[in-house]
Model the fold of this input.
Amino acid sequence: MRTQVGIIGAGPAGLFLSHLLFREGIDCVVLEARSRAHIEGRVRAGVLEQGTVDLMRELGLDARLRRECMIDNALDIRFRDGLIHLDLPALSAGKCATIYGQQEVVKDLVAARLADGAPIAFEAEVAALDGIETAAPAIRYRVDGRDETLACDMIAGCDGFHGVSRGAFPPGALTTYDRIFPFGWLGILSESPPIREMTYINHAHGFALCSRRSPRVSRHYLQVAADEDPDRWSDARFWDELAVRLGAGAGELVTGRIFQKGVTPVRSFVAAPMRHGRLFLAGDAAHIVPPTGAKGLNLAIADVRVLARALVEFFRTGASARLDRYSDTCLKRVWKTVRYSTYMTRLLHRFDADSPFDRQLQLAELAYVAGSRTGQAMIAENYVGLPFEDE
Ligand code: FAD
Ligand code: DHB
Done:
């Protein structure tokens, strides 16, 4: 098989890239290791920046989103000494965030691509990349028990943190930056109406977050040990602990059946540069950020906007200037996002190694934000999404 752009991975990065290229008439094939049912059922992020929603609209992929999403006009932070209420549009020139589950985005993008008659090979696991330093790279993968090769002009490694693309860089070509936080997030989905606002909580027991997916489905998180076994958390234990951390007022927290549960690591990782020869990394394949701030999915999409534009320029004109600055352009946003996600993580979690001095600093930072429009605006403008680089 042969194509112009071989895309490894049908997560948000690979799927958005495939649509951005398709609309410009550039041929691509998406190779995905897992089944369609698996990727459509994988519960992950749920907060979309304005730019992500705008891109879905531009691509004509937002019909179901507009019907089913929830608009987030505010973000609350509760802490020992009070409540910070961020009015997002007032603090960010009219912008807001949109709640719509990542797996719903994936379902919409898969359905639209297949309806376009464009290929996604499911259960096609990429094993190796050949010739990435040449003008004729190739992807070796296994499907239906057979070994196949996809010849292409360019390869987009959109295969997530555990994919193979990053490992295809030659030794010494990548610098990696890594910070692993000493805790994880236990996330649940429940059949229960959400509380009024998206609420982040700094509590002496640890961080908690009350989010939602729909008027009848809540998404909540608790800070737990990094190696926590989710099965140690019965529904009753989860609800009791969340009520304590939230400081729930009477009737505020409605409980319900928990139907999904999992622990997510809290980690930053950046690999640079994001390109070697004809291989371009995008999304989690190149970087992950702590979940505090809900940026991972949005950052993946910001990468492929830049990549699509650069590939279009290359295939139309032969010019490689945008491809040459792809990595530098993306890394600017990546590091700003690492900064923001680290700030929010530091602000809101319990750090067991903290001294009493550190804890006072954390409370002072919260008190500063509570009383400062500038402090609040910094959080709000990052939460709704910074302007794109390289417009
Ligand atoms: P992925 O979504 O990981 O997609 C990569 C795809 O590549 C996968 O479908 C995978 O099956 C495929 N693949 C891997 N290896 C191969 C191979 N060898 N051959 C072919 N295909 C391959 N972000 C938030 O903003 N908020 C959250 O609450 C949040 N929660 C998360 C919870 C979990 C458990 C995880 C893992 C991530 C979470 N994230 C969250 C981060 C966010 O989901 C990711 O940033 C986002 O999925 C990145 O998209 P991606 O397309 O780069 O990678
Ligand atoms: C959600 C996830 C996040 O990481 C976050 O900061 C806010 C909300 C969510 O899954 O809804």
Residues 326-348 form the longest helix (23 residues).
